[in-house]
């Protein structure tokens, strides 16, 4: 999402880092460019003006400090102010001292509430918070069925209107769901509420009744980041009527300009607690202002990358693969297939590369990160017999032609894969020998 903003912002800052002293004229010139970049990224005018004033006050007349020149100090100032704009610190969910904790998810229709409810429930399940889902969207066709299907995939119990006493209103339905969660010894209850195409009094009145009926510990607004400044206005409207405690921004992996993420906390004061970064049920991440500012300024997010790896890869599997790769025999194509599937579970390749320090948007565009490429590789490996995967040396010309036909790929791709695999295996065995000598 921050591709354009990140590229242009770092270009402006890079042009200033070579100066020995930052004069007021140089700062003004740079800040005018930063201001233009922020406004074009859909950051609100008021927040942009405040951001510029704070940076200007800290930047003008910066002296050189040891080996850090004023331009580099300006990068640090912009980084600090971005962190401040995004909320300063990570805000975790608040949990009740006596379970269950009730989390109300609100938002407009189409913002992704239902999917987000299941994503968050699955995340809480991994944290041993015993989640329980309540389907309270009784208006949108198939909303209850969608939550049931997603809940079944995630292995989470879903309370539906069929489980409530007949004829009850939505507030009573949610109350019955929370009571059922208590009897089921659930520790967290996530309520998927109904939305509309726009904010209206009827919807807000109903949500207020639900809030009063169950006293939620968190009221999370689910907002679509692709809607730009509309997301900020929507957040303001919900905050005024319901006093939301946090925001979940969905579709942060999209190609919108990113202004909503930069504006929503500054305008409402409500912290962004989670962001949706894909369609998979595990594609929900805690929002950390410091790490997000690092991504925007192309400083990377290695902590986030490690967290993704820990969630996607079993430690035992990773240790086993590492030992095989650095052993005298080396890894075979069976091991390679396991490693590739672990990589796929971590998310799109371009998303992982974007979390590495110094990898900019232009480099990602030039890189061959076609998601179909991994599927093609997987098809080639699966077209091999178990014996061929264990002993790649037996792959002669006729076998390679058969594998290419089975995978529906050119023979050249099969040859290229085997060549690259041989190079990787030799390199990993070399790392093992080097480690032994140490």
List the helices and strands and how they pair.
Elements: H1 3-16, H2 24-40, H3 45-59, H4 70-86, E1 101-106, H5 113-126, E2 131-136, H6 143-154, E3 158-159, H7 170-183, E4 188-193, H8 201-214, E5 218-224, H9 229-242, E6 246-250, H10 259-268, E7 272-276, E8 284-286, H11 289-296, H12 302-312, H13 315-325, H14 333-345, H15 349-353, H16 361-366, H17 371-382, H18 386-390, H19 397-407, H20 411-437
Parallel strand pairs: 1-4, 1-5, 2-3, 2-4, 5-6, 6-7
Antiparallel strand pairs: 7-8
Helix pairs in contact: 1-2, 1-4, 2-3, 3-4, 4-11, 5-6, 7-8, 9-10, 14-17, 17-19, 19-20
Can you describe this structure?
The protein has 438 residues and is an alpha/beta fold. The protein has three domains: 3-86, Four Helix Bundle (Hemerythrin (Met), subunit A) (Up-down Bundle), CATH 1.20.120; 101-299, Rossmann fold, CATH 3.40.50; 306-437, Orthogonal Bundle (434 Repressor (Amino-terminal Domain)). Helices cover 57% and strands 9% of the residues. It has 20 helices and eight strands. It has helices at 3-16, 24-40, 45-59, 70-86, 113-126, 143-154, 170-183, 201-214, 229-242, 259-268, 289-296, 302-312, 315-325, 333-345, 349-353, 361-366, 371-382, 386-390, 397-407, 411-437, and strands at residues 101-106, 131-136, 158-159, 188-193, 218-224, 246-250, 272-276, 284-286. It has an eight-stranded mixed β-sheet, sandwiched between helices. The protein is flat. It starts with a helix and ends with a helix.
């Amino acid at each position: 999402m921050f591709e354009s903003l990140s590229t242009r912002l770092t270009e402006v800052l890079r042009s200033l880092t070579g100066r020995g002293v930052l004069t007021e004229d140089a700062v003004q010139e740079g800040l005018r460019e930063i201001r233009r970049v922020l406004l074009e990224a859909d950051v609100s005018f008021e927040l942009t003006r405040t951001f510029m004033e704070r940076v200007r006050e800290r930047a003008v007349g910066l002296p050189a400090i040891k080996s850090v020149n004023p331009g580099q100090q300006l990068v640090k100032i912009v980084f600090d102010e971005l962190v401040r704009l995004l909320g300063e610190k990570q805000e975790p969910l608040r949990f009740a001292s006596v379970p269950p904790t009730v989390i109300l998810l609100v938002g407009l229709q189409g913002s992704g509430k239902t999917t987000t409810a299941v994503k968050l429930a699955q995340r809480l399940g991994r944290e041993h918070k015993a989640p329980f889902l309540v389907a309270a969207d009784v208006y949108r066709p198939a909303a209850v069925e969608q939550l049931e299907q997603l809940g079944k995939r995630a292995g989470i119990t879903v309370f539906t209107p069929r489980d409530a006493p007949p004829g009850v209103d939505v507030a009573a339905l949610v109350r019955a769901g929370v009571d059922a969660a208590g009897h089921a010894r659930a520790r967290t209850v996530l309520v998927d509420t109904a939305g509309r195409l726009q904010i209206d009094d009827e919807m807000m009145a109903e949500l207020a009744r639900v809030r009063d009926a169950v006293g939620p510990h968190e009221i999370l607004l689910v907002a679509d980041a692709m809607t730009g400044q509309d997301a900020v206005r929507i957040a303001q409207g919900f905050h005024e009527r319901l006093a939301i405690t946090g925001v979940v921004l969905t579709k942060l992996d999209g190609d919108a300009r990113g202004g909503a993420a930069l504006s929503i906390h500054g305008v409402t004061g409500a912290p962004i607690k989670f962001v949706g970064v894909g369609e998979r049920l595990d594609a929900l991440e805690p929002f950390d202002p410091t790490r997000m500012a690092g991504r925007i300024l192309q400083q990377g997010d290695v902590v986030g990358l490690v967290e993704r790896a820990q969630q996607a890869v079993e430690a035992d599997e990773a240790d086993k693969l590492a030992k095989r790769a650095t052993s005298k025999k080396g890894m075979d194509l069976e091991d390679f297939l396991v490693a590739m599937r672990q990589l796929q579970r971590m998310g799109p390749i371009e998303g992982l590369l974007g979390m590495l320090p110094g990898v900019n948007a232009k480099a990602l565009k030039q890189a061959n990160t076609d998601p179909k490429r991994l599927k093609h590789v997987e098809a080639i490996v699966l077209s091999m017999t178990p014996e061929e995967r264990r002993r790649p040396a037996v792959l002669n010309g006729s076998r390679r032609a058969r594998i290419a036909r089975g995978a529906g790929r050119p023979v050249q791709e099969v040859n290229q894969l085997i060549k690259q695999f041989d190079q990787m295996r030799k390199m990993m065995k070399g790392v093992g020998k080097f480690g032994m000598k140490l």
